[in-house]
Request: fold
Amino acid sequence: MPITTQQLIRFKQEGRAIAALTVWDYALAQILDEAGVDLLLVGDSLGMAILGYDTTLPVTLDEMIHHAKAVRRGTRRALLVADLPFMTYQESVEQAFHSAGRLLKEAGVQAVKLEGGHPTAITTVARLVEAGIPVMGHVGLTPQSVHQLGYRQQGGSQEAGEKILSQAIALEQAGVFAIVLEHIPSDLACQITQKLMIPTIGIGAGPHCDGQVLVTSDVLGLSNRQPPFAKVYANLREAIAQAVGEYTAEVRARSFPDQPPF
Ligand code: KIV
Reply:
């Protein structure tokens, strides 16, 4: 049975941890979905991990839709969420409707994620939710604000921590079904998780969140620039280099392909 936004909230009530990963194409979506990941995020981190940009800022809505369509075709069970890229929702609520609408209609995602918990973001979330578009929040380190925040941990001081907590509460009140907590202290993430009815999905936010998300290219050892909180579960960069090295050597030695039997 496909996972729904309501089911994620039930997972929190039941104390069942939510496993989420980012995804960018059909083949990977099939593998992650069949492996039992609960939530697949077509994150704008694909700009850095897959498209080779220096930040997530250049990612366009068309690029997100292109990747999300491929992911949709490979996903059967997981809840599919896509990021609204930088400057595709900040200008006005109308712009956010247009962008989120395209992701739902053209790519078939079930929900969108947007960054920030400031009053304008809250208004946008409330209007999208009111119109029936499920929204996931994202506070703490928000990579689209890299030129203001850098990639440093957020919420370290009492004042900064209280601000993130109040943003998370405001996002819940505006109707988000879940919220990403990125690179904040573990005790702050714990406090937010206890305060909210909706699930928190942590990345670099410690073990007390209701679920965890990582960027899949980090998990698989494909990327050469990982954040300090990422965990590498496989070294595919090395495995691919070895496989391609063997292939290249066999082609040059004319030992591949074999002589056909006839
Ligand atoms: O774009 C992304 O991959 C994200 C995750 C860091 C949650 O937003």
